[in-house]
């Protein structure tokens, strides 16, 4: 059985809404993370449409991801973080 959870999520945020999504991706193992980012952005475009703004942060490795989240999320500019 193949399950793709993204396909089972509702359109959040709804198409046409003016929303910001925070995406943090590691440069480490970029062969994998670049493909994950490509799929993520493609799905966000499909679900969110033109009203969606994606703020993309690239970090050297996984250890920096919590730091970026701890700085960016308290500002409450984003409706979600990936």
From TrEMBL:
GO cellular component annotations of the record: cytosol; riboflavin synthase complex
Molecular function terms, GO-annotated: 6,7-dimethyl-8-ribityllumazine synthase activity
Enzyme's top EC category: transferase
The protein's name in its UniProt record: 6,7-dimethyl-8-ribityllumazine synthase
Pathway: Cofactor biosynthesis; riboflavin biosynthesis; riboflavin from 2-hydroxy-3-oxobutyl phosphate and 5-amino-6-(D-ribitylamino)uracil: step 1/2
The keyword Transferase is assigned to this record: yes
The organism's taxonomic lineage, starting at the top: unclassified sequences, metagenomes, ecological metagenomes
Pfam families on file: DMRL_synthase
InterPro entries xref list: LS, LS/RS, LS/RS_sf
GO terms classed as biological process: riboflavin biosynthetic process
EC code(s) of this entry: 2.5.1.78
First and last residue of the signal peptide: none
Similarity remark: Belongs to the DMRL synthase family.
Stored Gene3D superfamilies: Lumazine/riboflavin synthase
Organism: mine drainage metagenome
């Amino acid at each position: 059985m193949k399950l793709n959870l993204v396909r089972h999520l509702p359109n959040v945020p709804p198409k046409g809404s003016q929303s910001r999504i925070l995406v943090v991706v590691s440069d480490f193992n970029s062969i994998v993370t670049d493909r994950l980012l490509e799929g993520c952005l493609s799905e966000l475009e499909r679900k969110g449409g033109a009203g969606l703004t994606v703020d993309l942060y690239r970090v050297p490795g996984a250890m920096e991801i919590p730091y970026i989240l701890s700085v960016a999320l308290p500002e409450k500019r984003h409706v979600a973080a990936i």
